[in-house]
Write a sequence for this structure.
């Protein structure tokens, strides 16, 4: 693949990745959030495949396809199923409203850009220059965890962080070993399953998944 | 592998076997027999290494990263021999004691923990690298903590005592860890040979010494780090108290001698003046608390603080003399200190075991509820009397010999050696003299009130003599005490060669003579055997004369004059509280006792009294003034930050988020 095509495609993939992450803050419809997460998974998979094609590394392409199947297929499917079972459609009243959240996301993006500079200086390739994008998504995911009430939003926040970590790993190194990626993906899948079980239990016990209703549980 | 190595390995292997035996088959004689054999092996290994055969080993594969480095020199051998000897007595005693009905000391856990504790204590002096020492030290702390908690189901105080002990011993461990890590970082490596060869800057040396001193003194029960001792010793089973008080606390002194004198090679005079001052303070404070307490085991625990204080006076004086270039005096002071370690181990084993025997028979530790045990427990009474005589530093007891040696080294200080020595040493002499006097009062009280006269409590009335194995364990300790008292020359060469490890330049044969001890370089002669002999002769003569004179007169049996108040009851006897009352009055300002008289008048008249209640207690003043505010402050901080955790998951997540963002911002700004 020529360098002229590689860099715009990589930037496009990373842009989609970032946009999907930020839009999670904007939408309050839980089904739409899951859709955005699936979109981000696809963008991540595309970036990995693109890296694999650029380096002519078949194993990396295979890993990229696997990442796509897990993050754009399996995890969104699990979440949709959980959502359908719960019947809760919307994120009620986030702790920080949508407009402020988007402004915060902009601030986080600037912070990530500033922090990533030393990393970029180590090896200024096009892939490494996209690292601030991944860091931004990481911070946005953390922000979702802090401000969103529904258990499903929490799961999405957690998975955003994980997507961002995976993206950072692929962008900074020229491919993670297959075993490591498999292990990480399996961990994520298990964590998602556990969180789903917990969500179901929470609903059975408290009739809702608003985390702030758990406050009474502390000692 | 030399004889010492084989014996040492055998001791550790026997400890492990005994622990497994105790787990698999919890009969008290299984673990007991194993521990006796292990103790014998350890004692023999110690004696053999003191006599002159050294042993060292480097086992790189036993532990990951650091390996295990062992070495037994005479100093280590002395402490190993003491531990072994104490273990033998305690294990023999424990066979009978563990079967005490209702105490549940023959459970698997206790049976397995005792040999492990002994093994750890044998391992500590043999360690020859920082990591090995710390590992053995922690093993010793953990196994002893388990044993302290052995009876936690029966009494709630056991749990609190265990908590105090756990916190203090781990703070001490952290201090030792920090000090030795600092030392090893400054030296080329962590083995003791590398530490000895290290050339550290003076500031670092001072830091290492002060920090490790804090850690080791907390193990030795030195004021103000003694607070765990009067709690843990009374609440632990008595044979465990004996092991802890006679063997484990010694390791604190071992650590100070090993690190301060051997590894750091001595230091400036102020180090040792600090050690001496801490020792003197502990000696006085310990014996003052002991003389006013009426709990028998608490009394013995405070007496441990006193004796460890005396040992530190000797160690501090030795370091001070070495710093002021008086090697003969330094050797003499260290010999006296180490001899006192041996002697204290002997009589404290005996006393704690005897206290356990009393506790088993009567169920009471309170001296005010005892009395009249002479007729009911004659053997225990005699054995406790021997221990009390030895502990009160009177001839012909064994503590007398070591305290005499210590005094000899202190009073020989040359006035030309500087103002510090000329001022400090006479003060130290005064402290030792005062503590010896108070020790006599303490043990007269313990023996007289506890064993003589008539029983004051139901438990004491129903007391019966202990089983033979317990008496045998106490008997062994008593024989060792008497042998040390009458022929100290048995132990002196060993102690001298152990002291020579710390001071290689010391001229040999500082204290010589088999029957009469003569000091080299200074004029001073003591013959314990002759003193004991003449005391026996004098006693026999006096008793014979009295008997002869009494037999001449006709005996008349009559009722005791009771001032017309009716028959005298046991409640009119002297109690421990009343015996100590004059001393409590004299030392009122130091002890700050709390007394509370509660008078309830009759309903009709203010002049007719229905009931008078009197409460007196002597709180540990160091604890009250130093620890209570500290604990209250920590508690307050804990309470005030409780508002941070209100149960909201989002809040907890936000803390993490803010911390991360804050760190990133700092990073972005600084880079």
């Amino acid at each position: 693949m020529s360098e002229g095509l590689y860099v715009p495609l990589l930037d496009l993939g990373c842009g989609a990745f970032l946009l999907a992450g930020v839009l999670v803050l904007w939408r309050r419809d839980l089904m739409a959030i899951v859709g955005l997460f699936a979109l981000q998974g696809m963008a991540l998979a595309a970036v990995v495949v693109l890296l694999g094609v650029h380096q002519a590394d078949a194993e990396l392409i295979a890993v990229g396809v696997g990442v796509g199947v897990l993050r754009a297929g399996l995890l969104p499917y699990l979440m949709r199923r959980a959502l359908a079972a719960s019947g809760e459609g919307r994120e009620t009243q986030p702790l920080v409203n949508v407009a402020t959240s988007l402004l915060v996301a902009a601030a986080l993006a600037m912070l990530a850009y500033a922090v990533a500079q030393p990393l970029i200086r180590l090896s200024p390739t096009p892939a490494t220059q996209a690292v601030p994008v991944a860091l931004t998504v990481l911070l946005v995911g953390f922000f979702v965890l802090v401000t969103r009430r529904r258990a499903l939003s929490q799961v999405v926040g957690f998975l955003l962080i994980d997507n961002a970590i995976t993206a950072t790993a692929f962008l900074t190194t020229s491919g993670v070993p297959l075993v490591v990626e498999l292990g990480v993906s399996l961990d994520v899948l298990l964590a998602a399953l556990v969180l789903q079980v917990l969500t179901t239990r929470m609903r059975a016990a408290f009739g809702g998944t608003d985390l702030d209703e758990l406050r009474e549980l502390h000692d | 592998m030399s004889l010492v190595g084989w014996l040492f390995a055998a001791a550790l292997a026997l400890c492990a076997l005994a622990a497994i035996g105790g787990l698999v088959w919890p009969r008290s004689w299984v673990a007991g027999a194993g521990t006796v054999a292990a103790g014998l092996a350890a004692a023999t290994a110690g004696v053999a290494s003191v006599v002159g055969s050294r042993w060292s080993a480097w086992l790189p594969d036993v532990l990951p990263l650091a390996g295990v480095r062992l070495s037994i020199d005479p100093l280590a051998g002395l402490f190993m021999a003491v531990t072994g000897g104490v273990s033998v007595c305690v294990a023999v005693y424990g066979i009978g004691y563990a079967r005490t009905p209702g105490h549940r000391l023959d459970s698997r856990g206790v049976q397995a923990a005792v040999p492990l504790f002994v093994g750890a204590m044998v391992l500590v002096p043999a360690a020859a690298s920082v990591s090995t020492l710390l590992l053995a030290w922690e093993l010793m702390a953990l196994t002893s903590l388990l044993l302290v908690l052995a009876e936690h189901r029966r009494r709630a105080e056991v749990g609190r005592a265990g908590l105090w002990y756990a916190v203090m011993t781990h703070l001490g461990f952290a201090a030792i860890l920090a000090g030795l890590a600092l030392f090893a970082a400054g030296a080329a490596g962590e083995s003791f040979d590398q530490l000895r060869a290290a050339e550290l800057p003076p500031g670092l040396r001072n830091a290492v010494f002060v920090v490790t001193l804090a850690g080791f003194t907390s193990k030795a029960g030195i004021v103000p780090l003694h607070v765990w001792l009067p709690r843990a010793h009374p609440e632990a089973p008595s044979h465990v108290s004996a092991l802890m008080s006679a063997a484990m606390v010694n390791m604190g002194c071992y650590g100070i001698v090993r690190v301060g004198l051997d590894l750091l090679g001595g230091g400036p005079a102020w180090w040792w003046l600090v050690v001496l001052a801490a020792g003197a303070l502990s000696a006085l404070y310990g014996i003052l608390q002991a003389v006013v307490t009426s709990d028998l085991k608490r009394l013995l625990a405070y007496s441990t603080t006193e004796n460890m204080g005396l040992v530190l006076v000797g160690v501090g004086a030795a370091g001070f003399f070495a710093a002021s270039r008086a090697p003969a005096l330094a050797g003499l002071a260290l010999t006296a200190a180490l001899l006192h370690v041996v002697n204290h181990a002997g009589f404290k084993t005996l006393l704690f075991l005897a206290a356990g025997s009393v506790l088993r028979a009567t169920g009471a530790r309170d001296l005010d509820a005892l009395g009249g045990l002479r007729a009911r427990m004659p053997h225990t009474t005699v054995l406790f009397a021997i221990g009390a005589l030895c502990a009160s530093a009177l001839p012909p007891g064994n503590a007398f010999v070591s305290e005499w040696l210590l005094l000899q080294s202190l009073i020989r200080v040359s006035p030309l050696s500087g103002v510090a020595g000329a001022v400090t040493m006479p003060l130290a002499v005064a402290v030792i003299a005062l503590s010896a006097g108070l020790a006599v009062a303490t043990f007269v009280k313990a023996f007289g009130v506890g064993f003589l006269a008539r029983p004051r409590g139901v438990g004491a009335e129903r007391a019966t003599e202990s089983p033979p194995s317990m008496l045998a364990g106490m008997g062994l300790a008593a024989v060792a005490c008497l042998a040390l008292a009458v022929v100290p020359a048995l132990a002196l060469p060993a102690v001298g060669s152990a002291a020579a490890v710390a001071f290689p330049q010391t001229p040999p044969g500082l204290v010589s003579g088999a029957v009469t001890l003569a000091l080299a370089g200074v004029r001073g002669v003591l013959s314990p055997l002759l003193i004991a002999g003449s005391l026996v002769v004098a006693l026999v003569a006096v008793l014979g004369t009295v008997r002869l004179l009494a037999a001449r007169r006709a005996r008349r049996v009559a009722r005791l004059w009771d001032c017309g108040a009716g028959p005298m009851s046991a409640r009119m006897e002297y109690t421990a509280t009343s015996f100590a009352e004059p001393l409590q009055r004299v030392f009122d300002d130091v002890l700050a006792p709390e007394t509370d008289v509660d008078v309830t008048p009759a309903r009709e008249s203010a002049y007719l009294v229905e009931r008078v209640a009197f409460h007196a207690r002597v709180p540990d003043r160091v604890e009250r003034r130093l620890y209570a505010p500290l604990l209250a402050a920590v508690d307050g901080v804990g309470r005030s930050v409780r508002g941070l955790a209100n149960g909201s998951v989002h809040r907890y997540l936000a803390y993490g988020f803010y911390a991360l963002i804050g760190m990133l911002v700092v990073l972005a700004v600084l880079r």
